[in-house]
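Figure 2 data, in text form.
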Amino acid sequence: MVTWRRYRINKFGKFCFSIYFPSKGESCLFTLAFTYKKLFKPLKYFAMKKSNITMLVAALLPLGLFLYPLWRITLEAPQYPIPLAMNIHINDFSDVNPHDIKNINLMNHYVGMKYIPDAIPEFKIFPIGIMITSFIGLIIAFTGNYKWFLGWFILMIAMSAAGMYDFYLWEHDYGYDLDPKAIMKFTNPDGTQMGFQPPLFGSRDILNFRAHSYPQLGALFLALGIATSFLAFLIGKKNNKKTLTMKATSKS
């Protein structure tokens, strides 16, 4: 049986310990030494880097999109005591109440709107994009300079803006690309075809419906992750200035 015998830290900064190995009735003592300064100094250095820890949190927060809805569209009308609503996830549509999407599809069919699909191409692209960017964020958090935090922040802003634009295009196509053979047709006062596009953000009236479109908890996780990465950059920049000031003072 191998047993721990003793340990000590010598004056050379080495962590030493002895192990007892019984073999054939004889005992042998082996003393092993580790230079703890070299072993623990990188960990101590990393622990002092608050910016890296902040960036680590920022990279993990967007993964909340896989747990909570990104967006919600709600339709209120007098004939529906309980509003119809659907959640938009990063990889799926879902009912807020049972059969909400089915009822929305039945209602929209009369004015020639498309059915809400079970899946769209973005449901395959967005999850991969979030996983890749979170992985990049983790690598930067562990190994990157604070300037890379700003790069990740800009990348996430650009991806989020592209996602919102894609969402707008989907809503526009959904609300304006109508079936010419629809049972009911509505026109604007100027004679043009009336559209039924839900708002990108906020509320608007569509015939006798009041449509609402607002972000949900998943979007909050994404926004917090982006904001936290910028905070990590600011902390890193501040610490870097302090370090440069201390070095300049010591030289003088």
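Caption note: Helices lie at 36-48, 50-60, 100-109, 122-143, 146-176, 217-251.
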